[in-house]
């Protein structure tokens, strides 16, 4: 069965309580349940991973080669800082979709730059939980291409 890796970056474990004015009340469990339901219907297998640690995310991506057909990632704050995550995506060559709950381009200037976007197939930003759902749809299409 086609396998897709989902990675949630730092502080996304706090969704629901974290800055609800920006991120809403949705929790990471709510998101994962929706993603799993879509995956079941589309007959793809999802592995879901959350970490607050850059090196753990780098390790996870580094081990993804030949195992996963696509990566759906919200790198969270590492979007704007992590050369290591960008390089891991390049090293594995895994087709990647970057997602964000908030519209990073309507927020502070430092969020306008994504180090991941240039090595991703595409980016979806600003649709709350739906960013992940649209992102999974795109990841499934890439995985099956
Ligand atoms: C985020 C946007 C990032 O700028 C921020 O650091 C996050 C969440 C989003 O999903 O909107 O932690 O990736």
Task: Describe the protein's architecture and organization.
This protein has one domain (2-144): 3-Layer(aba) Sandwich (Rossmann fold), CATH 3.40.50.9100. Helix 2 packs parallel to helix 5 and helix 3 (54-62) packs parallel to helix 4 (83-92). Helix content is 37%, strand content 18%. Strands 2-1-3-4-5 form a 5-stranded parallel beta sheet, sandwiched between helices. The mean pLDDT is 97. The chain is built from 5 helices and 5 strands; from the N terminus they run βααβαβαββα. The protein has helices spanning 20-23, 28-42, 54-62, 83-92, 129-144; strands spanning 3-8, 45-50, 70-74, 96-100, 122-125. With 145 residues, the chain is an alpha/beta fold. The chain is globular.
Give a short summary of the structure:
This protein is an alpha/beta fold. The chain has helices spanning 20-23, 28-42, 54-62, 83-92, 129-144, and strands at 3-8, 45-50, 70-74, 96-100, 122-125.
Q: Describe the main β-sheet briefly.
A: 5 strands, parallel
Terminal residue distance: 14 Å
Number of H- or I-type helical stretches: 5
The residue ranges in which pLDDT falls below 50 over 5 or more consecutive positions are: none
Q: Radius of gyration, rounded? A: 14 Å
Q: Give the strand order, joined by hyphens, for the main sheet.
A: 2-1-3-4-5
The tally of strands reads 5
Ligands present: 1,3,4-trihydroxy-5-OXO-cyclohexanecarboxylic acid
- Multimerization state: single chain
What is CATH's topology name? Rossmann fold
Label the CATH architecture.
3-Layer(aba) Sandwich
CATH superfamily: Dehydroquinase, class II
The overall pLDDT, averaged over residues, is: 97
């Amino acid at each position: 069965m086609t396998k897709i890796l989902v990675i949630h970056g730092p502080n996304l474990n706090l969704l629901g309580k974290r800055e609800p004015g920006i991120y809403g009340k949705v929790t990471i469990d709510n998101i994962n349940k929706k993603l799993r339901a879509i995956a079941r219907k589309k007959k793809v297998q999802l592995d879901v991973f959350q970490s607050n640690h850059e090196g753990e995310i780098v390790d996870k991506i580094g081990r993804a080669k030949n195992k996963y057909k696509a990566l759906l990632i919200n790198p969270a704050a590492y979007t704007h800082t992590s050369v290591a995550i960008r390089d891991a995506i390049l090293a594995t060559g895994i087709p990647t979709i970057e997602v964000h709950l908030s519209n990073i381009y309507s927020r502070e200037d430092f969020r306008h730059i994504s180090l991941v976007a240039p090595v991703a197939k595409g980016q979806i930003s600003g649709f709350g939980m739906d960013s992940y759902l649209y992102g999974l749809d795109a990841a499934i299409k890439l995985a099956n291409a």
